[in-house]
Amino acid sequence: MQCMHINIRKATFILLSVMINYVNNIQMAENFMESDFKNQVKNNTYKKQEIFIPKPVQEDLVLTCPSDVACKDLEVPCLDCYVKYNCEYGSLLNATCTAKPVVKCIGERKFQRPYICRYCYQTDHWEHSCELKANCNSVASPKVYYTTNCTVHKDIICLGNRLFDKRLPCNWTGGYRWLTALALSVTLGGFGADRFYLGHWQEGIGKLFSFGGLGVWTLIDVILISLHYLGPADGSLFI
Asked: What are the start-end ranges of the E strands in 42-126?
């Protein structure tokens, strides 16, 4: 019993020592991270915001970037710009930009250009272009969203990656006009012309051979189309 009592005391002492060392290591790591962050803020560091272009493609800049304009008028893909990351969101700052070595331009190659402190995914919708998709239902309830790739316009300077993902509402049209569908429903709805126009072929055949459901189906479709409850079969919106 005495031997077992000594072993338990030793094991307890070892366990406490390990726990104390673990806590000390965590505190040292937190202090180091806090000190490193303060040094970055104090030094007010700047990072280079540039478009990565593989070496085999760099020569294409000579063709894509104009050579008969002033360097300060070049678009962002033709420049190497240094932007401030530890800035206040929404503040107006100046970025130091330099024309890329392979780009030929007129005037001073190094200059300053104003920009707003924000990441590229925070730009307004008119400042970036997104790949629109037409394989979703625009009239679904609740509203359907999809994820697509967006790219910032070439004249905008922003922080982070210029290519980013964004969720957009499904909102596309296949060219169907609401007035055309309504006119067909009122005039030729008894023959299913409105249903054929909107792409509802099976219902159109049913209306054709039932003479618009003896007028009842025709009246219902007129009301549904006028209230936008009946739309194109492909899930798109009316023009």
From this structure: 46-50, 79-84, 92-99, 110-116
Q: What are phi and psi of 79, to 5 degrees?
A: -125, 160
- Digit-by-digit pLDDT tens for the chain (239 residues) are 444 444 666 666 666 666 666 656 656 655 555 555 455 444 555 555 544 445 555 556 666 888 888 999 999 989 999 998 999 999 999 999 999 888 889 999 999 999 999 999 999 999 999 998 877 778 777 888 889 999 999 999 999 999 999 999 888 787 888 999 999 999 999 999 999 999 999 989 999 999 888 889 999 999 999 998 888 988 888 87
Question: Considering the entire predicted model, what is its pTM?
Answer: 0.58
Please name the helix (run of DSSP H) or strand (run of DSSP E) that holds residue 168, with its range, or none.
Answer: strand 163-169
Alpha-carbon distance of 179 to 173, in angstroms, equals 14
> Which long-range contacts does 137-144 make (Cβ < 8 Å, 24+ apart)?
137/170, 137/235, 138/170, 138/171, 138/172, 138/173, 138/235, 138/236, 138/237, 139/231, 139/235, 139/237, 140/170, 140/235, 143/169, 143/170, 144/169, 144/170
Cα–Cα–Cα angle for 137, 141, 142, rounded to 5 degrees? 105
DSSP at 1:
-
What six digits make up the tokens of 237?
């919106």
Residues whose CB is less than 8 angstroms from the CB of residue 124 and which lie 6 or more positions away in sequence, other chains included:
none
DSSP state of 237: B
